[in-house]
Amino acid sequence: MHVFVTGGTGTIGSAVVTELLGNGHTVLALARSDGSAQVLESAGAKVLRGDLADLDVLRSGAAQSDGVISLAFGRDYGSPDALAQAIAEESSALTALGQELIGSDRPIVTVSGTPWVPGRASTEADPLPTDGPVGGRGRSVTALLDLASRGLRSMAVRMPRTVHNEGQGGFAGLLADAARRTGVAGYPGDGTQRWPAVHALDAAVLFRLVLESAPAGTAWHAVADEGDAVRDIATVIGRRLGLPVEEVPQESFGPFGPIFAMDQPASSARTRDALGWQPTRPSLLKDLENIQP
């Protein structure tokens, strides 16, 4: 299959490109800079120059492909306005890609976060939130899945709060960045809230499986660790960086504060049973041992 990939140089995207190329697929990848283009070409992908806001470029990439994996998301989301802009840009991109593929029965796989459900681990059957700071993302992904009734094999892979590789990435990576900046390995609340996690290389396998075989209109959970206590995550970060581990106000984490403070475990039981996905890479707490002081 010739696959058009956006976001192909990120933590998830670079792993997905490698996974696809290693399993008999070819890749056309969106690149917005010379550096990104060089990385993608070195990996073995062909390059289409442009960025997520270039809707005509996105349509061209989709038209040239047998399927699409859409992973790109804005890099500047340190404020509520920037986060809203990134979500709006992603929504426009998904709309353009979906409209280009309607009636073709070709697959498109997009990405979202696992939902949170009070008192239990969320499952693939739970709907995405459509309000709150990331509600716009839930609405755009749901709209794409709804196009399954119009001749589009649309699917979503829901990612946990931390997608990690070599101790970097996701919410845990943001905690480590904040620790380096402030001199404290901090966590909001009492630290008992749980975050799900997955290694990027395990997630990449799931994206490939979904692209190849998942039914239209379905959502899947790329969850290896159902829920690690945030205090345990901060403890490893503090030990690796030689910093004290303390509770800090959730406001310290900006727009992510309310999300960081939530208990949000997630299950992938249905995904594993239906698609035969079995994570094999190190857990988050083990992978965080790779953090360098």
UniProtKB/TrEMBL annotation:
Residue ranges of domain NAD-dependent epimerase/dehydratase in the record: 3-215
Region Disordered: start-end pairs: 115-136, 265-293
Name of a matching Pfam family: Epimerase
Gene Ontology CC terms: cytoplasm
Basic and acidic residues composition-biased segments: 284-293
Annotated GO MF terms: aldehyde dehydrogenase (NAD+) activity
Name of the protein described by the UniProt record: SDR family oxidoreductase
Organism: Streptomyces daliensis
